[in-house]
## 1
Amino acid sequence: MSVVERLVVIVLFEGVDLLDVTGPPEVFSLVQREMPEPTGYRVVLAAETMDPVTTSAGVRLLPDTTFGEVARGGVDTLIVPGSVEADGRRGVRARTDPAVVDRVSTLAGRARRVASVCVGAHLLAAAGLLDGKRATTHWSTARQLADEHPAVRVDADPIFIREGDTWTGAGISACLDLSLALVADDFGETVALRVARQLVMYLKRPSGQSQFSVPLEPVSRTRRVEDLRHHILRHLGEQLTVADLAEHARLSERQLTRVFKAELGMTPSAYVEAARVEAARGQLESTDATLERIVSVCGFGTADTLVRAFRRRLGTTPTEYRRRFRSPFGEPAPNREFSG
């Protein structure tokens, strides 16, 4: 069986952000674990020469090939990371070396699709690859991108944006979200979700249980929903009604519900309950906390509410769950603490 090669070229240059470079290869490598046949992905780091490149973190990377060599053949996916410098006002500015811009412009013409990571969008913009397109970048340099490239429709809100065969990603860790989106484009959402679980959502629990953390599944597309999710996680023990969440997000209750269903596939109330159940599972597995304490910390209000949530979502009770999945490194809590 012939395998279609998907050559992924990541651009290297002095001062490049380390995670922008190392994040995507990790995602592509994990795809193979979830596929019964070869994926065809071959990731290479390309630079002007074969000399080591020093990243912004001080870590040196060795290129696999040169820009000149890559330009002689075809490229499936060109990934362009970014680099920043301090602006003297406790902020940063994206750096765009003209020589790197020229190389990106040349290689983009050989690629099926082009993706920028974080402030790498500035390099794409400087190469004219984002003119007339909607694009995103790290929030700290979005204004710079808009000011320097008025032909680009800058939107600093989404985690990533696709415009045809051009992709732009926001933030540094968002390189993972962008890479997963590329995987989904190649192999479908199901494979991408399985990779996401392996990469950042998979927790190996006692007794061999596999658990996927609610806060990370699935990833939302906008910063507003991401911020609201983190707000929920930080305030699980507090009142989190739809009205409270809508006020925090500065949306109407109807808008909030519509956005949650569109991005997360559930209502705000269902997401809050799922997050609380997830937090309670962690307490049951790794602590001796009483039921009353877990109810308080996780915001269930009453023990009966907790038990009903466990039965509805897990098909078991808190007592049985702790008995099965309690960590062997601590003494299990007495059964009398649980009414379930």
## 2
Amino acid sequence: MTPQKTLTGKAWAALVLLALIWGASFLSIRVALNEIAPLTSVAHRTFWAMIALWAVVLSLRLPLPRGLHVWGAFVIMGLLNNAVPFSLMAWGQLHIETGLTSILNAATAVFGVLVAALFFADEKLSPRKMIGVGLGFLGVMTAIGLENLRNFDLRSIAQLAILGGTVSYALAGVWARKTLAGLAPQVAAAGMLTGSSIFTVPLALIVDGPISFDLQPVTILAVAYYALIATAGAYLLYYYILGLAGSGNLMLVTLLIAPVAIILGALVLDEQLNPNAYAGFALLAAGLIILDGRLWQRFRKRKAVAAD
């Protein structure tokens, strides 16, 4: 088992910055949706981020992938990690608050653990992981609210769409591990966004019609933010933190995103969440902390010392 890296001051700063960037992306997407349709917003996101990342790849003179199997993997990855979750979550945000969207998005880590356990022998569900997953699901159910599941109205469908996006993210993690290992992170991200743009741009044209650039300045700024900063830039920062602090520490960003999105939603959009959303996030956060494992290990060490 690979030991977990220590979080340095530099790693913490990068982690907080990534949380701020991704937390604000929920607000920028919702602002853009006031003027453009969900599929068009996703097409903007994948296309402009793709252009930006290929520019980075070319400027760094990184070797370009040539095999058809690699490009096929990019297409599947683009569907699972971009086209499907971005579309489901953009549509879902039309009907629920940005803060609640970010809370449900935190379930990505929970589904990631479950999906990894299904596909990889070295990712089996330990008792600690089962407790964390159980708390995570309890948190999701609490955030959604049993009354919404009973009513099954547009709001509850939107919340299930968000969760569908998190499952797609989890499947993307498995696909990336199986097919994209060994590629430079910048190339993998650019290729993935190319694969997703193959679907998102034509689909937006078919469903939403011609893409207009005659937009309000606030919409243009929102699109530029979530495409160039919260997608292209965030991917580069994500991989930087991964190398600096490791995947275990990187999962902590999931705990930091939702508070940022909730605060921005309240300040800018005057959103007010139901108390059960906060209770759900608290349970989700507890589950993620247990999945992270550090507090669990400290508890076991103290228990062993006390027994001695």
